[in-house]
Amino acid sequence: MTHVENETEGKTLARKLLLELGIPELCIEKSITLLEKGPANGENMRGAIIMDLNGNRLEPDIVRGIRASHIGITEEASKELQTAISDMRLSAFYTYISDALVLATKVASVKGTLGELCWSDDPSYTAGYVASGKMGYIRIPHLKKKGNPCGGRVFFVENIDPGNYINEMESFPVLVNRFGGIRSFKEL
After folding, report:
1. pLDDT, tens digit, for every residue of 54-73?
2. pLDDT confidence of residue 180
């Protein structure tokens, strides 16, 4: 888990993490701007942006985006996660964290995904995350101001066929069956 005081610090941390994943600064800045302003012509998307390392959007419908679907978590893994979240005094956010962690696991499992940036479009929830197969899921408690309804997710990709990538993201099932624990940001 990470500690930041506000959305400025949160976005600074997200930028740093994405740079460590090899995401070009141009893509990072473009993705943050899109999520801040509403990636679907000023509105939130139902799905996610797919962005290549040149900053190009690859999703065929910029209003819909793509949906990572057919995901779940076993009861045992869910209980382990719930205990860990409770130990971190974050029980009030269990549903948000569990949903995000399962979704990020699916996204990271799809070949060609380098990383993901996400923050909630729920005006009362300021958290988001950076996730990748390399770093795992890193929750950042402040990526926007409370009351802000803008949010979304960006999948950073390389060397993909967009049709195959979208098909796998939307059609292939992923079930999280174990929980590896929570580490602090300093342990990464």
Report:
1. 999 999 999 999 999 999 99
2. 84
- Fill in the DSSP letter of residue 179: -
Asked whether residue 144 is domain-assigned, the answer is: yes
Q: pLDDT (tens digit, 9 = 90+) per residue, 131-164?
A: 999 999 999 999 999 999 999 999 999 999 999 9
pLDDT tens column, 72-106 = 999 999 999 999 999 888 889 889 889 999 999 99
SS3 of residue 8 by DSSP: helix
User: Six-digit token pair at 99?
Assistant: 């949903």
The H-assigned helical ranges of 88-158 are 94-109
Q: Domain containing 62: what range?
A: 7-177
- The label of the residue with tokens 């506000």 reads 6
For residues 63-79, b (16+ Cβ closer than 10 Å) or e, as one string? eebbebeebebeeebbe
Residue 80 lies in a domain: yes
Number of domains in the chain: 1
The DSSP string of 67-90 is ---SEEE-HHHHHHHHHHHHHTT-
Give the full edge-to-edge strand order of the sheet including 136-140. 49-51, 152-157, 113-119, 128-132, 136-140
Which segments of the chain are extended strands (E)? 49-51, 71-73, 113-119, 128-132, 136-140, 152-157, 174-176
